[in-house]
Design a protein that fits this description.
274 residues, alpha+beta, 5-stranded antiparallel β-sheet, 43% helix
Length: 274
């Protein structure tokens, strides 16, 4: 009995180690990554990059266009920026069907409110209506949205409504799987009171950086500039992005070349001095 107990005790670490190797080996062969390993069998990972930056007199909203179902790109030119009212827009991330349903509901309710009150709703009202729907149905939804636009009360404003249904007014808002790659860039380049052109350029630059690094973001960049005068939509084709992998590789190569030349020059100077 003692020998049997000793043997079982000695074999336990080996069995635990073997189980860990087997699990990692199985995940590698099923194509699962750290991002997708915790999903249930019926769940699919989704990703995007959405961004909104206000400026005096309006707001610039932008998004990539890739819709993915796991590792398969279902739509490469999707429109993730939806109009909720005349000068109120929404950037969608998460489940495409959930966010489409939410924007349809909010658009309907805002239209009713405008008819009943005789005036245009504010961005704040639209954001809190979206928050109410997201929070009260948070167990059944996968939706992270940014509501932004212009109104006569606050001018250009942006509200972030992440997973769970909280609602926060932000100096700028960013969301989606690609957002983690560009927080540092936005913290460095954003400043309050940016002009319309500066905000527009930063939106396009930041989203292109996210698309270069995030496998779930890609396609083209769609933007909308919302002001009191109206809405101006624009898109940037995939081969005309402000930043891309080829630019990053070229920049890295030039730095390496300059660095090697500098080391060679330093070596020549040391030889001459010697």
């Amino acid at each position: 009995a003692t020998m049997s107990g000793a043997l079982s005790h000695q074999h336990q670490p080996y069995e635990a180690m073997d189980h860990g190797i087997g699990q990692a080996h199985a995940q590698a062969h099923t194509g699962k990554s750290a991002e997708t390993s915790n999903l249930r069998p019926t769940e699919l990972s989704s990703g995007t990059t959405i961004l909104a930056i206000p400026f005096p007199g309006g707001v610039v909203m932008g998004a990539d266009s890739r819709v993915s179902t796991g590792t398969y790109v279902a739509n490469r030119t999707s429109d993730k920026i939806a109009q909720l009212h005349d000068t109120i827009w929404c950037c969608r991330s998460g489940s495409a069907s959930d966010t489409q349903a939410l924007t349809d509901y909010v658009k309907h309710y805002l239209g009713q409110l405008a008819v009943e009150t005789g005036r245009s709703p504010t961005v704040k009202v639209a954001a809190h209506l979206m928050r109410k729907l997201c929070y009260e149905n948070k167990d059944n939804l996968l939706a992270g949205v940014i509501v932004g636009g212009w109104d006569a009360v606050d001018g250009g404003s942006v509200y972030n409504i992440p997973l769970g249904g909280s609602c926060i007014k932000m100096p700028f808002a960013v969301g989606g799987s690609g957002s983690t790659f560009i927080y540092g860039l936005l913290d460095s380049e954003f400043r309050p009171g940016m002009s319309r052109e500066e905000a527009h350029d930063l939106v396009k630059l930041a989203i292109s950086h996210a698309m270069a690094r995030d496998g779930s973001s890609g396609g083209i960049i769609r933007t909308v500039v919302v002001t009191e005068e109206g809405n101006a939509r624009e898109y940037v084709p995939g081969d005309q992005l402000p930043f891309g992998p080829e630019l990053a590789a070229a920049e890295l190569g030039s730095r390496c070349w300059v660095g090697s030349e500098g080391r060679r020059d330093q070596g020549r100077e040391e030889e001459a001095v010697g």
